[in-house]
């Protein structure tokens, strides 16, 4: 028995709506629907062992409309953006960019299980929005005290080494056009990519 | 002299100062005139893209818009940092591939009186510019102190050769541009199998165990090939392999002591420049042994140097270490 071809009306099905939503919120043309479940992505992924689901599994879940499970998965947060899977994917799926999309959707839905990664990203972005530049010293102290207080003593030597070699200034640097940047980002936040 | 716009990126002014210093020192010798992009902002690294798409791309595009305006005929924007390079290239690429993204980003830019037409700036990585525009023949002609006998692991990391929107590199996984450049400098270049594998990116701050394993693989591989030094083209790779080498050693009980330096520092050495002038001494895992191998004067030590590898534990009771001593993280 051959499966009937996908009719245009099927896009209204709740299962496919999630795929559409992810695809629409991705920067380029995601090609997510082109995935043939070959598993090249998971096989190419350096930190795959630490993921709840390989990218292939995650894409199958998205296609099955498993919204909650997909957004709870740690996979996008373990993705290191190395693009090995992207260049090897025979279907040219923009895998790394889909991972970024899933992160932002998980943040918006409050669906992530471990806050370490989203908090790190948010703290980084806070600094950038505030100064226009990243501020490693502020980021490191805020993030490590919150999430890795027990690692701090062991890292003191390294931090001191960085300070001594003038590789980690303790004061941030602000760009001249911070007001312009703020205006741009404020406007950008009102805009969204949707289907 | 060819003029390029330079987007240094935040790291060049902080953790990767050695990269900035060495680039400033070798650029005039290479005939590269680098005009810094006016009032550039952070590219968002790998953080902003995972939070909010349009703001993330607008943040990047502000730089592209300023570059297009500042260009004055020089339309190449050079980024020495891999993450900056990829983000700038990605925004340019996707604003074109997905016009709706381009429209929204430009709507946001308009709030700051800016506009960017995709394709109007050519985003390139520094290594690409040195290998292709300057050319290896020119580089060879400037070498006064060949790096003879120095075994170098050429390490590109991920974001330079991939995803490679403009097909600039010889290969996505085993490109040979850096190898050829280092060979031109007289170095003994090892065929580094993990040359485009991941350094862990931001994982030291998120999932340290994941990061340590990725760092371990690279250091282990470099040591198997008896590399004296790892040459990198990216501030993030340098930071992870150098600053987190000590933590990685503690995590696995290993004793790696592989110095990690920027390729521009090695260019400077081969051009006969003073080691300190090209940023040596800023690395946490000391490159003194590597320097002495090619007869370069190492910068004055910040603390008493200790034996490089397999140093026996001091006898006696364990004592708390002072800051100066505990600093050589790689040996502990």
Q: Estimate the global geometry of chain B from the Cα principal axes.
A: globular
Overall pLDDT of chain B: 92
Unreliable segments of 5+ consecutive residues of chain A: 1-6
C-alpha-based Rg of chain A, rounded: 20 Å
Tally of DSSP β-strands of chain A: 0
Write a brief caption for the model.
The complex is a heterodimer of chains A (195) and B (332). Chain A has 195 residues and is mainly alpha-helical.
Features:
heterodimer; A: 195 residues; mainly alpha; disordered N terminus; B: 332 residues; alpha/beta; 4-stranded parallel β-sheet; 13 helices; 8 strands; globular; disordered C terminus
Overview of this protein structure:
The complex is a heterodimer of chains A (195) and B (332). Chain A has 195 residues and is mainly α. In chain A, 55% of the residues lie in helices and 0% in strands. Chain A is built from eleven helices and no strands. With 332 residues, chain B is α/β, with parallel strands linked by helices. Chain B has helices at residues 17-30, 53-70, 82-97, 99-110, 126-134, 136-142, 177-184, 208-224, 235-243, 245-252, 263-270, 288-293, 323-326, and strands spanning 2-6, 32-36, 76-79, 122-125, 151-155, 188-189, 229-232, 260-262. The N and C termini of chain B lie far apart (47 Å). The model of chain B is unreliable at 324-332 (pLDDT under 50). Classes of the chains: A mainly alpha (195), B alpha/beta (332).
Give the SSE layout.
The complex is a heterodimer of chains A (195) and B (332).
Chain A: H1 14-24, H2 40-44, H3 55-63, H4 67-72, H5 75-78, H6 84-88, H7 95-109, H8 116-131, H9 136-147, H10 152-164, H11 178-189
Chain B: E1 2-6, H1 17-30, E2 32-36, H2 53-70, E3 76-79, H3 82-97, H4 99-110, E4 122-125, H5 126-134, H6 136-142, E5 151-155, H7 177-184, E6 188-189, H8 208-224, E7 229-232, H9 235-243, H10 245-252, E8 260-262, H11 263-270, H12 288-293, H13 323-326
Helix pairs in contact in B: 1-11, 2-3, 2-4, 3-4, 5-6, 8-10
